[in-house]
Amino acid sequence: MADKHTLWRCGVFSLDEKKLEEELASFRREWKEEIRRTVTDSGSSRNSPSVESPSPSSREGSPSPLLLETKNSSNTTSLTKEEKATQLFSQGVSAERRGNVYEALHFYRRAVQLVPDIESRMIDFTNNLMQDEEDSDNETDYTYNVVKENQDTCYLTDLTKKFNSLSVTGICQPQYETRMTHISAIPLELIVYIFKWVVSSELDMKSLEQLARVCKGFSACARDPEIWKLACKRLWGVNCGSAAHWNGCWRLMYIKRPHVLFVGVYISKTSYVKQGERSLDCYYRPFHVVEYYRYMRFFSDGTVVLHTSADEPTIAIQRLKVKLAGSNSSVSVGHYRLNGDKVTIVVNKKMATESNKGRRTRGPPPLISEQIFHMELQIKSTKRNKHHNQLTWLYYSISTKYRSSGQTVCSQLDLNDQFPPLYFSAVKSISNSATAPLQ
């Protein structure tokens, strides 16, 4: 594209347009010279002629951003160059925080034009400012934490006083007037003894927790340290120890320390595929899916009842309510012992050698005279509110003693496929009756 001088030589522009261009160029030179004087000399800027109201002809050719710069420069002539750059950079930071990116770039560009290294200077200043703000925030947080701890301490102190102030008459109050004697008239010692019957010798702690939901007085009685201490002594026996590890709280020790659960049954379901016999034409062979259950019920006196059956839990659990095996050969009675988070089970199963009186023995005597089952399982918790509800297999062996030779053979079983974990299931019918109180 040809420049303007070439077009002028060719006579494209008229004389009036040439004159207008010359006036505009002279105005721009005067305007730039006046701005340069204003920036260099702060005292002469007040006496200098105003640049904000140019002639109509100059308004047409002068851009509005330059006029804004002239106004801002006239207001900040009393500041030094570094102070003006700092002020512009701060305005850019504020605009960037508000989300006005283009406005922030405009302020940053003007600040760098005045002081090229203004960014590095501002970084040091910003770091010092942020450190001061962090120190003030830390002081505020410390004050807030101290106040909150004092409030919590006062709340716990008041709560302790309320529980300690519970007496025989204040354990609970009747909601309506009645002619019969209300339970609040019963002495506290007798109420605690009733609670021991609720727990019973089978350690039904779930019923105790449900009883604690009746009222605040019952909740205080259900947390009587004597009840929880007796429960721990009955559960762990001579290996109980003290509750010093749990801040002297027997209830916390019973809840947190691994142990088996009593008022219910541990159940696992096992399934595998078994091949059937071929058909007569040898073109078809069926496959059967075999499913069966393993049941374990623990008693607080160290007895355990094991049962393996294909029956559903609703039917098989009825056979586990007593500690006797009876005539069912799939029900075995053994003993267990707790060792940390592990439970060891030993079942001694002897084969019958003599028949009942008055009956003749049919067939040869059994080849096996005795079998001893050794099992070791680990106690785990699957969820936060479900403690000790899972038993995983660690070891399982069978010692078989033969009648004819007297030889004992020990075989260890593979626990990979057909020994899934057992999960605890509470049984309401077990907790319906109690034979003896907790003692």
Task: Write down the overall mean pLDDT.
Answer: 75
Helix/strand structural class: alpha+beta
Please provide the count of β strands.
9
> How would you write the strand order of the largest sheet?
1-2-3-4-5-6-7-9
**Helix proportion:** 40-55%
What fraction strand? 15-25%
Q: Which residues sit in consecutive blocks of at least 5 with pLDDT less than 50?
A: 1-13, 42-77
Q: Provide the gyration radius in Å.
A: 46 Å
> How far apart, in Å, are the first and last alpha carbons?
111 Å
Give, in order, the helices and strands.
Answer: HHHHHHHHHHHHEEEHEEEEEE
From the spread of the alpha carbons, the general shape counts as elongated
Major sheet? 8 strands, antiparallel, barrel
How many helical elements?
13
Please explain how this structure is put together.
This protein has 439 residues and is α+β, with helices and mostly antiparallel strands. It has helices at 4-10, 15-40, 56-61, 64-75, 81-98, 101-114, 118-164, 188-199, 205-211, 216-222, 225-236, 250-256, 313-316; strands spanning 264-275, 287-298, 303-309, 331-339, 342-350, 368-380, 390-402, 408-412, 422-426. Helices cover 41% and strands 19% of the residues. A hairpin with a 2-residue loop joins strand 4 and strand 5 (342-350). The termini are far apart. The relative contact order is 0.06.
Question: What's a quick, concise take on this entry?
Answer:
Residues 36-83 are annotated as: Disordered. With 439 residues, the chain is α+β, with helices and mostly antiparallel strands. The protein has helices at 4-10, 15-40, 56-61, 64-75, 81-98, 101-114, 118-164, 188-199, 205-211, 216-222, 225-236, 250-256, 313-316, and strands spanning 264-275, 287-298, 303-309, 331-339, 342-350, 368-380, 390-402, 408-412, 422-426.
